[in-house]
TrEMBL record:
GO terms for molecular function: electron transfer activity; flavin adenine dinucleotide binding; succinate dehydrogenase (quinone) activity. One of its GO terms (cellular component) is mitochondrion. This is FAD-dependent oxidoreductase 2 FAD-binding domain-containing protein. Keywords: Flavoprotein, Oxidoreductase. InterPro entries: FAD-dep_OxRdtase_2_FAD-bd, FAD/NAD-bd_sf, SdhA/FrdA/AprA, Succ_DH/fumarate_Rdtase_cat_sf. Coiled coil: none annotated. The active site is at R229. It comes from Oryctes borbonicus.
Length: 399
């Protein structure tokens, strides 16, 4: 670590504990062991990590992260780019992908997988600009469609996180896992659902109730405001239900940042200041921000092993689905169990994204035939789409 001595085994312990002891320890072992290499690789790709005065990568405290198996105090483990880490990674990796000979099918929306028994042969997609249908033949298909947060009224997820990838898997007769495990982030903006990053509390922000109390000291005396997200969300809900919420309806909590130096907020949390002003009209350097627990992350999804191969459970045994892989929030290697630790999502997508590539590289050879599609492959997807296109119910699908 840049900020203090750290060890991937301590990270593994925190992730297992944070998962409410329901995480797959093989997957967690793999992810945490690969984590330092992933950060170095991202830096080499050009991710503009924030720096310490000594020029090292700046690492931020996040909830549930500790040193020495929980006995060494708070860990500063999250390598950060101000408060725009994911945004910076996205653009850097997209820029890197342009170096390679890839075809991009922009505005194509995947509808269904093409299956032959328990083997995946590709997918059917619709071009949203033209309305044309296309079949994609592939020997290896990776599902990376995000989570299902938009199934909830208030969430922080992108508008594309509608669970369509999970639905494709279900329609193909395959299984889903742990769909009940949905994380509520403690600090969504009240009334809007937009995220106030955990980095706010990592930089020294804290939660207060209507009495001005830092109530997390009662629920998590050691970690306090940097307890794991499920603990903080439950604690906030208890405060509200017991009448100590803020606002006219006493139905939310305040996140206080204005005790921090304005220059620290400007350097480390520039995007948060802008978000708070847009959605609440408040200046974080002068007054607290109204927040409430909001749906943030889907721990459940498509069951996979740590090699990202999709699993099918039959007769008490797990078998892999030939040609099909899943990564990111769409997948469920159970690396997060029942609750994800802050910053482990970006780590998850980088580590298991590479794992998928490595797994396919071991199986695929240049010039391998992808097989052929029959004239009827994909018909079920078209029939399913036609049910929506030609239905005459009273509820408009565009509403």
């Amino acid at each position: 670590g840049s900020m203090e001595e750290d060890n991937w085994l301590w990270h593994m312990y925190d992730t297992v504990k944070g998962s409410d002891w329901l995480g797959d320890q093989d997957a967690i072992h793999y992810m945490t062991r690969e984590a330092p290499k992933a950060v170095i690789e991202l830096e080499n790709f050009g991710v503009p990590f924030s720096r310490t005065k000594e020029g090292k990568i700046y690492q931020r405290a996040f909830g549930g992260q500790s040193l020495k198996f929980g006995k060494g105090g708070q860990a500063h483990r999250c390598a950060a780019v101000a408060d725009r880490t994911g945004h910076s990674m996205l653009h850097t990796l997209y820029g890197q992908s342009l170096r390679y000979d890839c075809n991009y099918f922009i505005e194509y929306f995947a509808l269904d997988l093409i299956m032959e028994g328990s083997k995946c042969k590709g997918c059917v997609a619709i071009n949203m600009e033209e309305g044309t249908l296309h079949r994609f033949l592939a020997k290896h298909t990776i599902v990376a469609t995000g989570g299902y947060g938009r199934a909830y009224f208030s969430c922080t997820s992108a508008h594309s996180c509608t669970g369509d990838g999970n639905a494709m898997i279900s329609r193909a007769g395959l299984q889903l896992q742990d769909m009940e495990f949905v994380q509520f982030h403690p600090t969504g903006i009240y009334g809007a659902g937009c995220l106030m990053t955990e980095g706010c509390r990592g930089e020294g922000g804290f939660l207060i109730n209507s009495k001005g109390e830092r109530f997390m000291e009662r629920y998590a005396p050691v970690a306090k405001d940097l307890a794991s997200r499920d603990v903080v969300s439950r604690s906030m809900t208890i405060e509200i239900r017991e009448g100590r919420g803020v606002g006219p309806e006493k139905d939310h909590i305040h996140l206080q940042l204005h005790h921090l130096p304005a220059e620290q907020i400007a350097a480390r949390l520039p995007g948060i200041s802008e978000t708070a002003m847009i959605f609440t009209g408040r200046d974080v350097t002068k007054e607290p921000v109204p927040i409430i627990p909001t749906v943030h992350y889907s721990m459940g999804g498509i069951p996979t092993n740590y090699k990202t191969e999709v699993l099918l459970h039959k007769g008490g045994k797990d078998t892999t689905v030939e040609g099909l892989y899943a990564i990111g929030e769409a997948s469920c290697s159970s690396v997060h169990g029942a609750n994800r630790l802050g910053a482990n999502s970006l780590l998850d997508i980088v580590v298991f994204g590479r794992a998928a590539a490595n797994t396919i590289a071991e199986k695929a050879k240049p010039g391998d035939s992808a097989g052929e599609l029959s004239s009827t492959d994909g018909e079920a997807a078209v029939c399913n789409l036609d049910k929506v296109r030609y239905c005459n119910g009273k509820t408009p699908t565009a509403a």
